[in-house]
C-alpha cells in the first residue's frame, strides 16, 4: 500500500511523448512537474535540452526514450543514441526492443541488443527495457522479459503506451506475469493507459515498482483529494 504522497510521486515517471511538442511546451511541462517530486520526467530524445534547463538542480530525474516507439533501429544505433543522451545528462534510458525480433521469439537477439545498450548506459544510470507486451504472443511475454533482464535491464517496462499504434492498455495481469518470472531485484515499469489513482494502485499491487503516466499531476491531485476527504487514508 502506498503510504505517503512522496512515496506515490516517487513511483511515477511523468511522461510527455507527444510528437511535435515545442521546446517551450516541454519546459512548461517540466516546470509544472517539479513541485510534485516525481521520480522522473520521461521525454523524447530531442526534448532533453529544454528539460535539462528546468530540471537541473531539482530532485527529479530525466528519462529519455531510445528507438521509440517501434524499436526497429539497429542496436548499434540504439547504443550510440543512449550513450549520447547519457553524455547530455540523462539519468535513465527507456529503450524499445526490436518488436519484430521479439515477436519471432528471437531471444538471443533481444538479450544481445539490450546488452549493447547496457554497455552504453553505465551505472548508476538506469536502463528500462520496453518489451511491448500487448503485441507479443502470450507464450513469448515471459521469455522476452527474461531475455531483457539477462541483457542487463534494471527495469522491464510493459509497453510504449503509444496510442497512435492502437496498442491496448497495460493490465494488472501483464504486471503479475512479469513479477512472477523476473528476479526480485529487477523492477517493473507499468505504462500504457494508466490515467487514474485507482489504476496506478492496481499496478503497484500487482508488482509494479514504477509507473509511467502522462497524467501524473492529476493522479497526485486525486490522492490529495482522497486524503482531504479521509485523513486516515483509508
Structure description:
With 234 residues, the chain is an alpha/beta fold. It has a single domain (5-227), classed as TIM Barrel, CATH 3.20.20.70. 45% of the residues lie in helices and 16% in strands. The chain is built from ten helices and eight strands. The chain has an eight-stranded parallel barrel with strand order 1-2-3-4-5-6-7-8, surrounded by seven helices. Helix 2 (23-33) runs parallel beside helix 3 and helix 6 packs parallel to helix 7. The longest helix is centred in the middle third of the chain and has 14 residues, at 75-88. The radius of gyration is 17 Å and the shape is globular. The relative contact order is 0.14.
Into which percentage range does the β-strand content fall? 15-25%
- Which overall shape is indicated by the principal axes computed on the Cα atoms? globular
Structural class: alpha/beta
In round numbers, the mean pLDDT is 95
Low-confidence stretches: none
Multimerization status: single chain
The end-to-end distance, rounded to whole angstroms, is 11 Å
CATH superfamily: Aldolase class I
**Radius of gyration from the CA trace?**
17 Å
Return the domain count. 1
Order of helices and strands: HEHEHEHEHHEHEHEHEH
Q: Count the beta strands.
A: 8
Helicity range of the residues? 40-55%
CATH architectural group: Alpha-Beta Barrel
CATH fold group? TIM Barrel
Per DSSP, the total helix count is 10
CATH class: Alpha Beta
* Largest sheet composition: 8 strands, parallel, barrel
The order of strands across the largest sheet is 1-2-3-4-5-6-7-8
Amino acid at each position: 500500500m502506498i503510504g505517503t504522497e512522496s512515496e506515490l510521486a516517487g513511483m511515477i515517471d511523468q511522461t510527455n511523448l507527444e510528437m511535435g511538442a515545442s521546446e517551450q511546451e516541454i519546459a512548461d511541462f517540466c516546470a509544472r512537474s517539479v513541485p510534485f517530486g516525481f521520480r522522473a520526467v520521461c521525454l523524447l530524445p530531442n526534448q532533453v535540452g529544454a528539460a535539462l534547463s528546468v530540471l537541473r538542480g531539482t530532485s527529479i530525474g530525466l528519462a529519455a526514450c531510445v528507438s521509440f516507439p517501434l524499436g526497429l533501429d539497429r542496436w548499434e544505433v540504439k547504443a550510440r543514441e543512449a550513450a549520447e543522451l547519457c553524455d547530455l545528462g540523462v539519468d535513465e534510458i527507456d529503450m524499445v526492443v526490436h518488436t519484430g525480433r521479439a515477436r519471432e521469439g528471437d531471444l538471443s537477439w533481444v538479450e544481445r541488443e539490450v546488452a549493447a545498450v547496457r554497455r552504453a548506459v553505465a551505472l548508476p544510470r538506469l536502463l528500462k527495457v520496453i518489451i511491448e507486451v500487448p503485441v507479443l504472443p502470450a507464450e513469448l511475454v515471459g521469455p522476452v522479459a527474461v531475455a531483457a533482464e539477462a541483457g542487463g535491464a534494471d527495469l522491464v517496462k510493459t509497453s510504449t503506451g503509444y496510442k497512435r499504434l492502437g496498442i491496448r492498455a497495460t493490465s494488472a495481469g501483464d504486471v503479475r506475469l512479469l513479477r512472477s518470472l523476473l528476479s526480485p531485484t529487477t523492477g517493473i515499469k507499468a505504462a500504457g493507459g494508466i490515467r487514474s489513482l485507482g489504476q496506478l494502485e492496481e499496478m503497484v499491487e500487482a508488482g509494479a515498482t514504477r509507473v509511467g503516466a502522462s497524467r501524473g499531476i492529476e493522479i497526485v491531485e486525486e490522492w490529495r483529494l482522497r486524503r482531504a476527504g479521509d485523513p486516515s487514508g483509508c
